[in-house]
Design goal:
Blueprint (H helix, E strand, L loop, with lengths): L8 E9 L2 E8 L5 E8 L3 E8 L2 E9 L7 E7 L7 E9 L5 E7 L3
Antiparallel strand pairs: 1-8, 2-7, 3-6, 3-8, 4-5, 4-7
């Protein structure tokens, strides 16, 4: 649903169904961070991004049953995501909801 993020990408989840998430150790606090989530299949997903014990982004995405994907995201200023590690949790309303995500740090 979301294309590969290219050289600015830290994380790319091409496709997953139901609840899930990711963890990464590659973030820089010198660059802004952009989290984007797309979903389809009905229902919704709740997305939470945590960096060193602080929630830096939280939002919901409505997932259309048909006719394309719902897309939402969060942009964080440089320094919001602490050096190195972050986690993202995706809580889907149904186990058949399909989602994709990217995390980028554009220079």
């Amino acid at each position: 649903m979301l294309p590969h993020p290219g050289p600015d990408g830290l994380v790319w989840v091409d496709e997953f169904r139901g609840d899930g998430g990711v963890a990464s150790g590659g973030a820089s606090n010198d660059l802004p961070t952009v989290l984007t989530v797309a979903c389809d299949g009905g229902g919704d997903v709740r997305v939470t991004m945590d960096s060193k014990g602080t929630i830096v982004a939280a939002f919901d995405v409505e997932c259309p049953a048909s006719g394309g994907a719902g897309v939402a995201g969060a942009s964080m200023a440089a320094g919001a995501v602490r050096p190195r590690d972050f986690t993202i949790v995706v809580d889907a309303s149904t186990q058949t909801t399909r989602w994709s995500l990217t995390v980028t740090q554009p220079e």
